[in-house]
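Re-running DUF460 domain-containing protein to confirm reproducibility after the cluster update. Everything else is unchanged from the original entry.
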Amino acid sequence: MQKRIIYGIDIARGSPRARELPRYALAILKDGEVFHQSMLRRQKIFNMIQREKPEIIAVDNIFELAADRSELLSLMEKLPEGVKLVQVTGGLHPEPLVRLARKYGFSFDPENPNDEAEACARLADLGVGHEVSLFEDITKIKVSRARSLGRGGWSQNRYRRKVHGAVLQRSREIENALKDLSREKGIRFETVNVKGFGGYVRSEFTVYAKRGEIPIHPMASNDSQVSVRSVERDKIRYVPLKPKNPRRKFTIVGIDPGTTVGIAILSLDGELLYLKSSRGIAPDEVVKLIAEYGKPAVVASDVTPMPSSVEKIRRSFNAVPASPGIEVSAEEKIALGRTFGYSNDHERDALTAALLTYRSYKNIFSRIEKKAPQNADLELIKFYVISGASIEAAIEKARASGEPEKPKPREHAEKPEDRAVDESLLKMRETVQRQSEQIQNLQEYLEELKKELISKDRKISKLESRLNSFKKEAYSEIRKSKEINIRDETIESLKKEVSHRNKTVKELRRRSNKLRKIQKMEVRGEGTAVKVIAAFTKESIAETKEKYGLKTGDVVFLENPSGGGTATAQILVEAGIRAVLIPEDISHAAEETFFKGDVPVLKNIPLERAEDFAMAEPETLKAAIADWEKEADARRHKAKEDELQSLFDEYRSERRRGLV
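Result of re-run:
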């Protein structure tokens, strides 16, 4: 049998907020025996926690372990399942550790970290303190792609379908596991799926249960990955530990009945002892659960009149009934429960019933605390007041039950004593009568439960036989339907892909036929190949050069000749092209550059186009080039004449200046 292990931790040197890592004193309590270790770093302690998995980690202040809430959250996420972090000094209003130790019968040296660590461990072993809860009873599960789809290529659709299909398959596996969990334990969950090509891009599951209750763990494969995380609370919640062998306390119980039963239990001090909802829980199990946390003084519902199922539970405890008397809006319920936190509507409604009841008694409880003697049992007095007694009568009853009078010799008996004995007997008779009524109520309730159980067993047997037959029929139909849907989606996707490819093939075939025609014409000498440049820019020229090349003797067609200048034209001149064909005029600078480079610029030459190629009639092209060369010769001759005339005029001007 594994021993109960409790870790007590106290800071020995430094602080989590300092630059230097702090050191800690550790006291390990194993079934009464204490083992000390000193000056340990936090990481080493957490490595030991991973190995030994203690039941409790006890501290007097949780922020001795972490500098802030964010760091504390990170530490608690690393704790093994089932390990509790407990602040032994209390929750929102801590009590000094020295005072607590004295209260439970032992002392220690507050200057010695080892002693403080041991005191924390021993107090936690006694059930003293509050468990630190940073996470809601809600778990988020996310299934997503394990890698990016990238920019893609020819096989992009097939790759995308493969990845999305893997996410879809993993999501269905998790959904089936959660459905089984829901049937077995009544755990509720919600699903959000984002569809993609061939499957899911991602799936998100919100499960209303603790992470340790869900048999799904983080994982990753080549195509999909699964992340599992608990939902963080807005505020730190402190849940009181259940003390060892506790004296049965009086409680206020709120119940929300139905298929899913919500239960909230408060102490008479307004402290939340229990809050949870359970699906399909039997009434006798509800009674047992409530009894574990004490004796209900009040059983409450958030609706008026009280439902019969809640009334039966109330009668089993002979508790005082309570309900708000008016309808409580959802906004009020949310505001009431926000401080404590809840996981669903059933827990919220049960908590509302308990809190409204506590509020109705809060003022009278304050008066009791003021009027009661110093050492009086306040809880017992409150219980008597709830049961209908006045504050004074309740104080007397509590004193009588807590401090019974010692018997006195008969010779000293006087009339006041006789009256006290009579009153004591009367109280005893009232107690016996009340207990007899309670026993009778419990017996009646037990008989009702037995009858209901027999009836339900019969009904369950019939429904199970019908359900089995339905399952067999429905299972085959569901499988067929799913397979058909999957195949229909696949067929539709393939049809779209085939249609797209047919269009692409048709277009490529048309281009191929055109190019083949141009090639034949060129081979037979029926045409001259012309390379088409989309725009008269450096980028378009470079693109054409990269795709098809530009060599000496090529003829090019500038589809959009506007915009180009001297530098752009010079690129074509240096390439050694034979001629430039244009549909409209080009800039004067570009034309001048082509003229100087002896490259003919021909306008409106008829072409047979095919994408980036064209074909010109050889004789037409040859004649146009010849005409351009004639014009170019004339232009050059004229330029030489102008140059000679300019020299002659300059010479004459200089002679005149010399004569003068």
